[in-house]
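BUG: 3D viewer hangs when loading the predicted structure for this chain

Environment: internal workstation, default settings.
Expected: structure renders.
Actual: progress bar stalls at 90%.

Input used:
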Amino acid sequence: MFSRLPLLLALGACTTVANEPAADPTTGLNETVFRCKAEPVLVTQCSYNACHGNAESALRVYSIGKLRATPPADSIAASAPLTDAEQHANYLSAAGFSAFDQLPADNWLLRKPLPSNDGGYEHKGGAIYSGPTDPQYTAITQWLTGATACP
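Structure tokens produced before the viewer hung:
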């Protein structure tokens, strides 16, 4: 009986683990509102090559004159408006930070670049927002909380 114990324990320990797919982070987020409210903030504040204008960054932001989806052939191409594909990629990149059920104020797009005295984290780029009443913070909050219209 005892010689079979390791085999019984091993067989009993083998179970099937099923992980449910993660929820679609874009559910409840409006891409049009992203483009008019949140994307301008991210492009202005976050798209520098040493920061999020880098293809290797978790939050990757395409912007005019900086990171482009296709390397531009010349300065004219680099300064062309963002393509729909680049804007959609920016949306998906930012929406990925809302994949978990969290309060908007805990979202890293909002929390990390706050000043530390307002609950911000160690953001390499320093504080981007002056606080939770900053218009840029408010614009991203509106997108994250399901705004459906642009100003």
